[in-house]
Amino acid sequence: MTMLSLLVTAILVKSALCSAPSGPWDPFNLAPESRTVYALAIHGVNGTVLDASNLVGEKGGCAILAGDGSYVTLDFGYEVGGLISLNVDETSEASSLALSFTESPLYISPLTSDDSAAQSANMSYDGVLYLPTPLKIAYWTMPPARLRGGFRYLTIVSKSVSSVTVSNVSLAITFSPHVEDLRDYMGYFYTEDPTYFDADFLTKLWYSGAYTVQAATVAVDTGRQDPPVQSPGWANNATAGIAGPIIVDGAKRGRAVWSADLGLAVSTQFVSTNDLVPTRNAISTLFNEQNPVTGELPYSGPPLSEQGSDTYQAWTLIGTYNYYLYSGDYAWLEEIWSNFTKAMQYLENKVDDTGLLNVTATGDWGRLWQGGLNSEANAIFYRALLNSAEIATYMNDSTLAATYISKATTLKTQFNKAFWLSDEGMYRDNTTSTLCPQDANSLAVLFNLTMSAEQASSVSAGLTRYWNAYGAVSPELPDNIAPFIGAMELQAHFVSGNDARAMDLLHLEWGYMLYTPISVQSTLLEGYTSNGSLYYRSYDGYNYDASFTSHSHGWSTGPTSALTFYVLGLTVTSPMGQTWAVAPHTSGLSFAQGGFETPLGWFGVEWSLDGANFTILLEMPKGTNGVVTVPIQGSVSLDGQKVDVEGDILVTGGNHTIVVYN
């Protein structure tokens, strides 16, 4: 099928996109049924608060706060974000009321909210939001600029000796503003994990990642002001891009586009909601701010618009490829193609006589020691070259595609010569270091820079030396666990065939994030320290206050797509899934099912392992083609007919049953 006919097909079927099927996975969908939500419980009361329980749920009863410093903390039960409304029912001219917000229960306070603004050198907190005084008997809603993008706990505090009566406390959800039904996912995933204390963990984790990205999808005029207009305080009324809705890094903060985050969040979007317009707007925003002379891209969107990262430049190019692979948005690709090739040339110009990228713009995900002939940067650049070659083919530029392939081939050879340490069985950080970093080694396996299966497995084994009870500690960011890079490692274990190791890492790192009582137990942490505390060294290397850590960060959602791409085994291999692949990793599980939607239709997989027999059911759009790799050996039948299998099974679109029996 030609690209033109592929696009015509996409236009014709786009209106036929439908929801994922219902099933036992539905209760794990965290998205609220209504955009108006209410507290689920009272977390605590201090001082004199009468009838505090009336503030829970929709009943809207009254509670009385009496005395300066008296407060009640409401628990919404999971991560939420938006604008609080309440009724002031009885008051006096001397009464005063304020609200504070926090994601973690560790930072519940009547004096301050957790930190979303990082507004000063001493990392002062955000403070509280005062209701206008003198208080009036009225229905009050937070000003839009004071939107609180991510929190679980709301504290209502009396700031005077005079009492005040409040009722009808509610929250208007503001994230994913373009979506009518937040629970209407286009994809799903379901399994049971017999090896973990909670058999539903993997399903919960898939949906927590999906909800995390939903919470980080915002209206374009609700970015974080930097610095805020008042201190202490916060303001979420900055313009975050050229169009909305737009995907940003985190719900609470920083509420700006970050290109590396797209490397994981876009795939999460695709397999869960297939809501890719926010991604298109985010990438278009970065290209819109491209330096027209050098081709350099910012590594964050407005209002930050920070420059100076070769790795994030490459991540933008990878994100562009992923968006096109999932969407087939050829018209958009044509629009940004000249920007894309200019951005590639910016990186190509930094390749020196070693054949490696020489990093001069050292901004990165927070790691130390970036710069020069760095292995992580070269691994990302290698992937960008291969992706760019494929995109050039779609753009009918075979000469440019061949050039990118040639450069990638040279880079792979030089990468292994420069960075491989045979005594360690891993790659080193740079040509003058013996440190074996988590990021470069994970990416080398994931992006196929290894020269053999044995080498990939050696790297997979070597990465476990950094594990502890809370996850994988990054030696290139000492004492920190970074789920962004942890997700790359997770995929590397799957790619190298070490599925049990991948599952162990899921249990350690994401199990901790999802169940620890110091987080929101719904969305996923930006990062944390090696002892499980919330202090995390932020993206630019500055030691921010622990309450600044985001508890809903898209770059931590890698398991959502990994469970679909590897455990379920379903991937698309050309735009929109015109071609696809199914290669399940059974990973100690007895079954898995799920799928996703593209403009071509529904892609569904259901597999089960019963003793020595394996069965897989496929539901693929007509007119597509795929390959199926079965995870066990044995006699194989396709739709009841025995087939001789020497490698992959070629399958056309439609409904099919494959059985491997022994």
TrEMBL record:
Domain Alpha-L-rhamnosidase C-terminal residues, every copy: 578-635
GO molecular function list: catalytic activity
InterPro entries: 6-hairpin_glycosidase_sf, 6hp_glycosidase-like_sf, Bac_rhamnosid6H, Bac_rhamnosid_C
Pfam families (UniProt xref): Bac_rhamnosid6H, Bac_rhamnosid_C
Domain Alpha-L-rhamnosidase six-hairpin glycosidase, chain residue ranges per copy: 246-466
GO biological process entries: carbohydrate metabolic process
Keywords assigned: Signal
Signal peptide: 1-18
PANTHER family in alphabetical order: ALPHA-L-RHAMNOSIDASE SIX-HAIRPIN GLYCOSIDASE DOMAIN-CONTAINING PROTEIN, C, PUTATIVE (AFU_ORTHOLOGUE AFUA_3G02880)-RELATED
Protein name: Alpha-L-rhamnosidase six-hairpin glycosidase domain-containing protein
Species this chain originates from: Fibroporia radiculosa
